[in-house]
Every structure is written in C-alpha cells, then in structure tokens.
Design a protein that fits this description.
Structural class: alpha/beta
CATH topology of the domain at 8-188 and 200-235: TIM Barrel
Oligomer: single chain
CATH class of the domain at 8-188 and 200-235: Alpha Beta
Radius of gyration: 20 Å
Strand order of the largest sheet: 1-2-3-4-5-6-7-9
Distance between the termini: 9 Å
Number of helices: 13
CATH architecture of the domain at 8-188 and 200-235: Alpha-Beta Barrel
C-alpha cells in the first residue's frame, strides 16, 4: 500500500491554490489537515471546493476556538466545505479543551466518515480508550495523528528510533484506520538566516524516512513550507519582511533571503522575485518533477521579463505547490 501525505496546513487561500495546481494522481496521495486560523479568509472554501471536491481532508478548529472563545468559525467552515462537496472530517485533540472536543464531536459523520484523533507521543497509551469512550468510535473509524513537535534541533536517526519504539508499543497494535506521524522543522522566518542562499535540512522528513516501518504503514505529515506557529504576524512585521522564497529539494530546503522593499537599501519586489527565480533555475537541484506547475512557473518568471513575478501570495502558492508535488514524488 502506498503511503499517504497529510500536510498540516493553515486555512489560507495560497495553500488551497497550491493544491488546485497539482495533477490528479498527486492529489490522490494527499489528505490535508487544515487548522482554522485567527481570521479565515472568505474565499478559502471556494478555493477548496475547486481543488478538493469529492476528496478527503481534515479540519482542526482547536486553535481558533482558543483565540475566539467559541466554535463558530470551525463549525461554519466545516459545514460550508461539506456543502461544497468536500469530504471534511473533524479533528479531535486529546490536549484540547472539553468544549472544543464536544463541538468537534457533533460534526462526526456529517461531511466525511469518522474522525481524526490527534495526540502527542506521550499521550499515545490512552488514545484507543479515548476513541472508544469519548468519541464512541471503533479505532477502525479513526485516523490517528501523532504530533511529535518541532524537530529542528534533533538528530534524525536517534529520534526516529525513539519515536518508532513508542509507536510500536502504543499504536501499531490497534486497528486504526490510519496512523500518521506529524512533525515540523521549517524555520519560522528568515530572521536568523544570512542574506542570499542557505540550505536548511528538513529534519522532519529525515526523521520519518528513518522510522522503522513494519506491516502497518506510518504515513507522513509535516507543516508544509511553514513553521507550526498558527499565530498571525503583526502588520508591521509583514511590512518590514524580506522578499524571500523556500524551494524543496531532497532532504533540504533552498532558502533565498532577499531584502526589504522599503528603506535606503530597499529593492522593488518586481526586481527581487525574478532574481530569485533565476537563482533557482541555475541550481542543479532545480526541477526533476515532470509536469510540476511551480517549476514551470519559476522557469517562466526567470526567462520572461514581461511576465509578472507576482508577490508574496503568489510565491506562497509556488513554494507550497513544489513542496506538495515533491513529497508525493518521494513517498514510497
């Protein structure tokens, strides 16, 4: 059985647009897990309806519940996605408040089959009992997602052995519908990186690759090209941010840190993104994915001065689409 990729994403239009640009065989191996943000964009559901109609995804509203104090945004989005034809499944978290989990439980079976149960490795021993007692579901109706946290500072080999022993002892003997290991390692921003190009290891991917795999597959989840922090940066921080890109390659990201667009040393956005595109296409690691929309887009921007390079939102789509396509291509 091929492995499934379950990226942990934000309810942003860029992520939905990146999914839309994938080929159907690529989408067949992806089941995204969306986290409802502080202020979900109004056009997210429409974008997801175009990208993911009749396909399965998961919706986690715990973060928004804690920020807003209620389930309205989560419930409204889940209902809207279901009405639009998306098979959306609620996420229940062992660490979430009882009020959120109660709201999420009320949506089980409404737009998609069963539920997803999210826990940490330390909570694994109680996951099966929680599913049966709190969700009143058999494990075979539950997708188990184990979130191992941010791994950027860990050694992949040793941590994979540690996680493998915990999963073997507490999860793989239970007939879950699926088991997924999620983790993250992407930098939160470019602040700690020097100007120009830096190669940053994808520790989350390296850890999963070295995870002991037995008869029961452990699927892969990361946080895409983003850090796991769901809070929105303040407007002033975004105004001062550099024009930068993240490009996924084997075991690493190519991260190109640009400059601000304002101030004495500022460079216009329309000059920086074409330069970044030219830098990428000159790299030996560029491309390698037949039919990849993002690579075609980068090549066009690099070679055609008359073509608009877009801004931050468009480069979120480009970077995310490359990442999704690359992960699916490299999954066993």
């Amino acid at each position: 059985m091929p492995f499934i990729y379950r990226p942990m994403l934000k309810t942003k239009t860029g992520e939905a647009a990146a999914l839309l640009q994938l080929a159907a065989p690529q989408r067949d191996r992806i089941e995204p897990v969306f986290h409802v943000g502080e202020k979900p964009p109004l056009n997210f559901v429409a974008r997801m309806a175009a990208a993911w109609s009749s396909r399965r995804c998961f919706l986690d509203g715990a973060f928004n519940f804690n920020v807003s104090g209620g389930p309205q945004s989560f419930s409204n989005m889940l209902r809207a996605l279901g009405t639009a034809g998306v098979q959306v499944i609620p996420v229940i978290e062992l660490a979430a408040t009882a009020a959120y989990n109660q709201a999420a439980r009320s949506h089980i079976g409404r737009a998609g089959p069963g539920a997803m149960l999210k826990c940490t490795p330390s909570q694994l021993s109680g996951a099966a009992a929680f599913a049966q007692q709190q969700l009143q579901l058999a494990p075979s109706d539950v997708d188990l997602l184990v979130d191992a946290g941010h791994l950027a500072e860990f050694d992949p080999t040793s941590f994979a052995g540690y996680l493998g022993s915990i999963l073997q002892a507490n999860a793989l003997g239970t007939p879950w519908r699926s088991v997924t290991l999620a983790s993250s390692s992407a930098p939160k921003d470019f602040g700690q990186l020097g100007p120009g190009l830096t190669v940053v290891p994808r520790i989350d991917w390296l850890t999963w690759r070295q995870l002991p795999q037995g008869n029961r597959p452990i699927d892969y989840a990361d946080f895409g090209i983003s850090h796991r922090d769901l809070t929105e940066p303040p407007g002033m921080a975004m105004a001062a941010a550099t024009m930068s890109v993240r490009y996924t390659i084997d075991d690493n990201w190519i991260m190109i840190k640009g400059k601000r667009t304002t101030g004495a040393s500022g460079i216009p956005m329309g000059d920086q993104y074409p330069a970044h595109a030219r830098t990428l296409v000159r790299r030996p690691e560029f491309g390698g994915l037949p039919g990849c929309w993002s690579d075609q887009r980068i090549s066009t921007i690099a070679s055609s001065p008359s073509v608009s390079a877009g801004g931050r939102p468009q480069w979120v789509e480009i970077n995310a689409n490359r990442h999704f396509a690359f992960i699916v291509d490299r999954l066993p």
